[in-house]
Design brief:
By secondary structure, the protein is mainly alpha-helical. It is about 50% helix and about 10% strand.
C-alpha cells in the first residue's frame, strides 16, 4: 500500500533519485516501488478501457469501438478485444482484484490468472473465490496463485468442475507445431498426460550416457513411437501420486485432491483415479492414526497394531513455546513424520 504518498508522487520520487547514485538496497526499493506503481497505473488503464466500452456501447460507433482502440494503440483488433474484455471483467466481476491492483498489491499477471480461472463461475461463486485468495495473493508467485485459485474454484463449484473436465476430455488431441531451425513441437492434451510423462521419465532414467535428461526424454519418446527400440519394462511402471482426504474418497464431501506434478484436481476425478489404481495409506492427520516409527513397545508413538494416535496438541509456554523441552522435541518429531501425508490436512 502507498502509505506515505500516492502513485504519482512515488513515481516522481523514484525518477528524481536517479540511478547512478543508488546502492543495491536502494535499487531494490526503487524496483519494488515502480512495480507497485505499474500495477496501479494498469488498474487505472483497465477502468479507462471499461469506461470507453461503456461510452461506445450505444450510438453509431458502437460496432467499431475496439477498432478505435486498435488504431489508437497500433495493435490488432483481437488484441484490442482482449484488453477491453479483460478490463470489463475486472470492473464487473473482480472489483476486489482491481482495488488490490490500485493499491499495488496484485500485478497484472496475477489479475489475469484470476480472470482466466473464474470464467465459468457464477457471480456469487466468483465473490467466494476472490475473497478466499486475495488475502494471500501478494505473497504468492504466479504458479502458486494459480494453484490456490484453482483449488478455490474446485471447492466453490465441484459439480461444475466435473462437467468442465468431461468437456475437456472430449477435446483431447495431439497437435504438431513447426518451430525454428528444422525442429517441430508435439503437444499432447489428454487426461493421462501426467502418467505418460511419469512413465517416460522412468524409462529415461534407465539410460546412462552423456546426453542431458531433456535429450534422453526426447530420444526415448521418439524411439518408442517410431519403433526404433524396445524398452523392456512393465506397462504399469508409471507412478502417479495423488493426495486426497479420506472423506472425499468415501463420498462424504467434494474436497479437491492434489495430483503430484499437476496441482488441484476435482473430487470426481480423484475418485476416478482411485478406482483405477492401487492406493496405499501412508498417514493421517490430527487425532487419527500414523505409521509406526522404530522403537520398543510402550513408546508414545507405537502400538501393537503398528498404528498410533497423535498425542493431544502440546500445551505451550512463553519460554520454550511448549510446556517443556521434551514436548517441543516430540512435537518437532511429529511434524517431521507427518510432512508427507497421503491424506492431506483439510
Amino acid at each position: 500500500m502507498f502509505e506515505s504518498s500516492s502513485p504519482d508522487k512515488t513515481l516522481a520520487a523514484v525518477f528524481a533519485a536517479g540511478v547512478d547514485g543508488l546502492d543495491a538496497e536502494q535499487c531494490l526499493d526503487a524496483i519494488h516501488d515502480l512495480e507497485r506503481v505499474t500495477s496501479a497505473v494498469q488498474a487505472r488503464q483497465a477502468r479507462l478501457y471499461a469506461r470507453f466500452a461503456e461510452c461506445r456501447s450505444e450510438g453509431p460507433l458502437a460496432e467499431w469501438g475496439t477498432d478505435e482502440v486498435a488504431i489508437e494503440l497500433s495493435i490488432t483488433r483481437n488484441a484490442a478485444n482482449g484488453r477491453v474484455g479483460f478490463a470489463r471483467t475486472l470492473v464487473e466481476r473482480l472489483p476486489g482484484t482491481l482495488e488490490a491492483m490500485e493499491r499495488g498489491e496484485v500485478d497484472l499477471h496475477k489479475a489475469r490468472i484470476l480472470k482466466e480461472l473464474i470464467e465459468p463461475l457464477s457471480p456469487e461463486q466468483v465473490r467466494v473465490v476472490e475473497e478466499k485468495v486475495l488475502a494471500t495473493a501478494p505473497d504468492k508467485t504466479g504458479p502458486q496463485l494459480r494453484q490456490a485459485v484453482w483449488r478455490a474454484v474446485l471447492k466453490a463449484d465441484p459439480q461444475g468442475a466435473q462437467a468442465r473436465h468431461e468437456r475437456a476430455k472430449a477435446e483431447r488431441k495431439v497437435v504438431e507445431y513447426p518451430v525454428e531451425d528444422g525442429m517441430a513441437q508435439l503437444t499432447v492434451t489428454a487426461p493421462d498426460a501426467t502418467a505418460i510423462y511419469q512413465r517416460l521419465d522412468t524409462l529415461t532414467r534407465r539410460c546412462h550416457d552423456d546426453r542431458t535428461m531433456d535429450q534422453r526424454r526426447a530420444d526415448v519418446f521418439t524411439d518408442l513411437l517410431m519403433g526404433r527400440a524396445c524398452y523392456d519394462t512393465p506397462a504399469a511402471a508409471a507412478t502417479v501420486l495423488v493426495t486426497v482426504a479420506a472423506t472425499t474418497l468415501a463420498g462424504m464431501d467434494d474436497k479437491p485432491g492434489e495430483l503430484a506434478g499437476y496441482g488441484p484436481i476435482s473430487a470426481a476425478m480423484t475418485r476416478e483415479l482411485a478406482a483405477a489404481g492401487t492406493w496405499r495409506r501412508r498417514s493421517r492427520s490430527f487425532g487419527r492414526t500414523m505409521p509406526r516409527r522404530s522403537g520398543g513397545t510402550g513408546s508414545p508413538w507405537t502400538s501393537s497394531s503398528g498404528l498410533v494416535t497423535r498425542p493431544a496438541w502440546p500445551r505451550r509456554s512463553a519460554r520454550w513455546g511448549f510446556s517443556s523441552p521434551s514436548l517441543a522435541i516430540r512435537w518437532r518429531r511429529f511434524r517431521g513424520m507427518s510432512g508427507r501425508l497421503q491424506y492431506a490436512w483439510r
